[in-house]
Each structure stands twice: as C-alpha cells, then as structure tokens.
Amino acid sequence: MPLPGKPFISQARIQKRVREMARDITKHYKNKPLTVVGLMNGSLFFMVDLIRQLPPDTKIECWKVSSYRGKKSTNRIQGLDGYEGNYDGRHVLLLDDILDTGRTLFETRKKLLKAGALSVKTVVLLSKNVPRVCDINADWTGFEIDNRYVIGYGLDYNHLYRPLPMIRILD
C-alpha cells in the first residue's frame, strides 16, 4: 500500500531533534519537580519518545482535548472541562503535537496555572508559521513549518495515519 501524501520530515530527523529537546528540557528542570501533561491523541508518539529521555521522577499525565475535525479547526476546545488536579509546587511541561492557532495551548496553560502550577512551559513538535488567535509561543519547538496539513508521528486526518513513523504532507 503506498503511503499517503509527500515525504516531509524523516523518522531519523524527528528522533534527533527530540533527543536535542530532551537534553535542553532536562537541563532547564534540573532538581525541580516536573509534571509533563501531554495533549492526546496527537502528541502520543512525541510524548513517549521525549519522556523516555527525561529524569525517571518525572510525573506524566495525559489530557484528551481536541479542536479539529478533519482539516478544519472547530474554534472550540473539547474535553478541557473534564480535567481537574492539584499542581501546587510542581513545574508543568505542557506538550502538544502542533501549534497553529494557539488556542489549545493558551487555554490549557491557563487551566494549569489556575490549578496551582509553579510554572507552565510548552513544548511542541511542530509550530506552524501562521497568525495565532491567542498570544502564545512554544518554549521548545521541534520544527517550524509552513501552513501545510501534515500527518504521521501522531498527527492524523480523521483518525487515520497516526502510526506513520515520519511526517508527511497531505495534499
């Protein structure tokens, strides 16, 4: 079966960049209590690869939130209301697959700070070069990309193509 779309970022390039970011993140949070909150489902593969390289006392949580249907944003974050928690005394690293409008990271970050996090920094695998709806930028970014629809390495189109080990541009 031929792969959909066109090759964009290879598996080897992704793994190299994830290792680089993990080193920087580990240095930044040295001797600080860290919780990683991964936004599912898109960040699943990125999160697993990154947290395996972080200190073993890193806490891990997964929040299932979404704002897309097909290739279009719904302009609403679904699922965010279902998460409560106590983050008092913890530094939180909010992890997502892709930053485009900024709405998901902005609203999720705000919720974590309200829940008592000492700090909330963000890491994304991809950051689209598009105007943001919300004023937020990632603290760590794997790759800057143009406004293209991408699949693979957790990114999907209608729940398909997440398992691809590389990132491809979907025409």
Strand content: 25-35%
Number of strands: 10
Rough outline: globular
The low-confidence parts are none
CATH class of the domain at 16-64 and 86-147: Alpha Beta
- CATH architecture descriptor name of the domain at 16-64 and 86-147: 3-Layer(aba) Sandwich
Residue share in helix: 10-25%
- Round the Cα radius of gyration to an integer and report it: 15 Å
Summarize model confidence as the mean pLDDT. 92
CATH topology of the domain at 16-64 and 86-147: Rossmann fold
Describe this structure in words.
The protein has 171 residues and is an alpha/beta fold. It has a domain at 16-64 and 86-147: Rossmann fold. The protein has 3 helices and 10 strands; from the N terminus they run E-H-E-H-E-E-E-E-H-E-E-E-E. The strands form 3 sheets. The protein has a 5-stranded parallel β-sheet, sandwiched between helices. A 3-stranded antiparallel β-sheet has the order 1-10-9. A hairpin with a 2-residue loop joins strand 4 (66-69) and strand 5. Helix 1 (11-28) crosses helix 2 (44-51). The longest helix is centred in the N-terminal third of the chain and has 18 residues, at 11-28. The two termini are 17 Å apart. The model has no long low-confidence stretch (mean pLDDT 92).
